């Protein structure tokens, strides 16, 4: 007897390969706005993996990762099931914005409700009609507000299986991070589903290295879960993993023009000069020094900043 998988009301049988359209909301004109759910199930039963991107509509690098996985045929398993959702927040993707049309952050609305706001209803339908089928999920994100994340994975530190899966994914950094209340990751964990969150790049931007890291990681996870073996298609070797146990933001002490002197991924020590903030007229410039020793995980790419803005995120190993 094979495992029952039902998505959007349709039973997915062994050997099925199809794309279903999630249609739960319309534009003001009543035009449909559909979310493609790409499903491939092998004839042999096994693990169900969900690969998801675009919860935030402006985080397009995650969309590119899942798109390439589909276009290159990596989403076709020899055992088990792979579900791909390249763009979940189609509303935001079309408008190049992070949020849903109701102004809400979709990743703070899970598991949602049938009678709530638009984003809450959407989250509820996705959880109950699609996501609940998955045993594991790779959730692809980027830095928001033009803040560039060095490619890394995030997970809670109390789960040994997730820690092993994060090491298999194979980014240079693995960051322990508390789950945000009402996030997709938080809602899935309550269903005992395993979620690895990938972060890399910045909003409204594509980065080839970040894309490569994301695809390679997904292929390694597929092999580990017994779905398929695409080892020959890996671009990079699995690096030694550096565990980030905490992170601290360096913020602007004054408003002005921000110049960075460091690169994401590199190590810095207390007292190192990380950048500077100046007025735009040439009268003053203040150096930014590190208050911590660790690795640069995120760097703000906006040249104009306000006092208090987050500039640099430093990952701490102790």
Automatic annotation (TrEMBL):
Segments forming domain Succinylglutamate desuccinylase/Aspartoacylase catalytic: 46-224
Against CDD domains, the record matches this protein to: M14_ASTE_ASPA-like
Superkingdom: Bacteria
The UniProt keywords, alphabetically, are: Hydrolase, Metal-binding, Zinc
Gene3D superfamilies per record: Zn peptidases
Needed co-factor(s):
Zn(2+)
- Keyword Zinc (UniProt): yes
The protein's matches in PANTHER family, at most eight in alphabetical order, are given as: BLL3975 PROTEIN, SUCCINYLGLUTAMATE DESUCCINYLASE_ASPARTOACYLASE FAMILY PROTEIN
Designated name of the protein: Succinylglutamate desuccinylase/aspartoacylase family protein
Give the organism, scientific name: Flavobacterium jumunjinense
């Amino acid at each position: 007897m094979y495992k029952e998988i039902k998505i959007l009301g349709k039973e997915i049988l062994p050997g099925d390969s199809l794309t279903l359209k999630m249609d739960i909301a319309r534009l003001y004109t009543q035009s449909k706005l559909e979310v493609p759910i790409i499903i491939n199930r092998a004839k042999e039963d096994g693990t169900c993996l969900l690969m998801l991107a675009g919860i935030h509509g402006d985080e397009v690098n995650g969309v590119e990762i899942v798109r390439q996985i589909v276009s290159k045929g990596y989403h076709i398993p020899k055992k088990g099931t792979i579900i791909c959702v390249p763009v979940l927040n189609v509303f935001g993707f079309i408008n190049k914005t992070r949020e849903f049309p109701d102004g809400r952050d979709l990743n703070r609305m899970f598991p949602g409700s049938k009678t709530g706001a638009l984003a809450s209803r959407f989250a509820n339908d996705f959880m109950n009609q699609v996501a609940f089928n998955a045993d594991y999920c790779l959730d692809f994100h980027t830095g928001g507000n033009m803040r560039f994340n060095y490619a890394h994975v995030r997970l809670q530190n109390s789960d040994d299986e997730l820690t092993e899966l994060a090491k298999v994914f194979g980014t240079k950094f693995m960051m322990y991070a508390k789950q945000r209340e009402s996030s997709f990751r938080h809602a899935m964990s309550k269903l005992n589903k395993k979620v690895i969150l990938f972060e890399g790049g910045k909003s409204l931007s594509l980065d080839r290295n970040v894309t490569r890291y994301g695809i390679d990681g997904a292929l390694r996870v597929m092999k580990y879960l017994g779905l398929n073996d695409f080892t020959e298609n890996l671009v990079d070797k699995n690096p030694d993993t550096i565990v980030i146990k905490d992170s601290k933001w360096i913020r602007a002490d004054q408003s002005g023009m921000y110049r960075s002197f460091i690169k994401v991924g590199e190590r810095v020590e207390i007292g190192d000069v990380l950048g500077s903030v100046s007025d735009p007229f040439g009268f003053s410039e203040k150096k930014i020094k590190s208050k911590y020793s660790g690795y640069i995980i995120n760097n703000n790419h906006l040249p104009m900043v306000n006092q208090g803005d987050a500039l640099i995120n430093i990952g701490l190993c102790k």
